[in-house]
């Protein structure tokens, strides 16, 4: 559940207590969960653009890349094994998500994080020491399992440990840590590529150990969440833990609410069949389409392949890696803009602004590639300064547009529209669809570029037009709306209103009324 902090069903109110060391520690562990995910996203493109790495594992791609400018430039890096190196991780993460949700429930969040961190650590060591492609791919698969466990358990852990009023902020905070991980990876690649002797890529891949050690050891030090203890029947331990975590003995109100929430969720026997009820059609649609569209913005073309892309166009190795550092920095800094504005201007405004900016930029990138290589893929002379400046400008403006719209909102919006009845099932779908299409883009991009040439970027802009129209017509504004009131939001919507019957809204309002009176 990357970034998808799950809110507990307990109403948002101010329970007694303060922000304790435990909660701060929880934030650090959560950060390392975002970091390991981001580090993987940012590291592979730089590594696959290093000559020493290509020479060792993919010599035919190295030859292809060094071939003279009469060969088709769009296909320079098109190798199934190179893409498998990047994409295998996301397939593994997708598969492990399903196991991770059971481990997280049965053994608790802590052991899920520990298992994820340890698997990730082993994967990082194998990758750093890799002698052949098999070791590389096995390492990537282990990293993927680790990421799957981390993105399933860490946000859940965070949302249960954090005081209610910090939950929303932590949601985008997790996305922010993903962007920090990507930037760290970009910077590390920039420096390790300069290491003489051609083993810099080992350092890049091996340094993934650092966030892995933080999450593995950190999880051992962390207590289990009170919610998880209650869920597993350890009521006395849960009370003691709540006192410790909140730094007060006055925990009865919160304890009662957690027990009530836990009983409510245990009473839901069939979350998956609930999901198919007509009244949940809007939520089901959003949980499938939002992560699907987030990946089809094409963002991971930049995140995974920025250095490869810049090398394709003719930048030198160092300039390519530096450009990735620039896009990584813009991605991180722009996420702050989202944090600062999302509750003021609302989700739809950010989706529109970011979407339109990305449409223009994808057209710009496609046109620049077309001007340089035409349809035949033949380079025509060296790059002028103006050309490289414009290309970088379009890629950076595109990344900024993503980082304050689809990046954080692709996780935030789904996490705030699911009622308790279907929350776990919908979150699982969001994570799985996200991982699946991360895999598809990682696997497909280099070959799409080879076949569709510069038109590929026009395709991305076409899809962006469709998704921006989708937001305009189908996504209601969710800013400042309590989750319990969401059914009214759908009911009032011109399209979704027909799926929500009057009694569905009444039912949930009655539930809300009950909750408010017990408050
Ligand atoms: C997405 C990743 C993407 C990252 C970029 C995340 O929300 O899930 O696929 O690489 O944003 O910052």
Automatic annotation (TrEMBL):
The keyword Cell division does not apply. Residues 26-479 form the Major facilitator superfamily (MFS) profile domain. GO terms for cellular component: membrane. Keywords: Membrane, Sugar transport, Symport, Transmembrane, Transmembrane helix, Transport. Belongs to the major facilitator superfamily. Sugar transporter (TC 2.A.1.1) family. This is Sugar carrier protein C-like. The lineage of its organism: Eukaryota, Viridiplantae, Streptophyta, Embryophyta, Tracheophyta. It is found in: Membrane. Its main location: membrane. It is a multi-pass membrane protein. It comes from the Eukaryota. GO terms for molecular function: monosaccharide transmembrane transporter activity; symporter activity.
